[in-house]
Amino acid sequence: MEQNPNNWYAVYTKPRWEKKVADALSRKQVETYCPINRVTHQWSDRKKIVEEPLFKSYVFVRISEAMKTLVRETSGIVNFVYWLGKPARIPDHEIELIRNFLMEYQDVEVESFPIHENDLIQITAGPLMYQRGRVVEAGKNTVKAVLYSMGFALTATVKKSELVLINSQSVAPLNVSI
After folding, report:
1. What's the pLDDT tens digit per position in 124-134?
2. How many CA atoms are closer than 13 Å to the CA of 111, on its beta-carbon side?
């Protein structure tokens, strides 16, 4: 089985530069994907279907490690999207999922999931990675959660970007060790 050295990455663009960046990268022979959402706009006298980028200020590129500098130097690109200190790799199946979803649906909305008090969460990054807890306070960018360990309740403040919401129906009791 042959390994493809190219990986998908997300790059952050200047506002409203998604299509321009995708075109510029294509001219440089870089494989790109700028998911386009077909949205119906209603004006007082007409309706029109407009194609807009699904993810504001993001374009996906499939490149090798050696091509990162070429991509960074493209006009309109701010930087790669980073996760845990490295450019975030996006699995092929997630790009395919987005493509298939957009072929089937239009007027798609991208929303972050809401976090509320008493929600069960799992931390996805940092020193508390994989720990589960219950939200006691939800702020704009952070969540205060209680993590149960060794008979104690530990309270931690975690960035919302570093956790996932857990369906309370499928979760085992919170006997978590840190």
Report:
1. 767 777 778 88
2. 6
The CATH number for 120-170, chosen from 1.10.155, 2.30.30, 2.60.120, 2.40.440, is 2.30.30
- Strand (E) positions, 100-160? 120-123, 132-138, 142-149, 152-159
Please name the residues in contact with 118: beta carbons below 8 A apart, sequence gap of 6 or more: 134, 135
Q: What pLDDT does 107 receive?
A: 76
Residues paired with residue 93 on neighbouring β-strands, in sequence order: none
Compute the distance between CA of residue 143 and CA of residue 161 in angstroms, rounded to an integer. 10
C-alpha distance from residue 166 to each of 8, 81, 82 (Å): 27, 25, 24
**Helical (H) or strand (E) element with 40:** strand 36-42
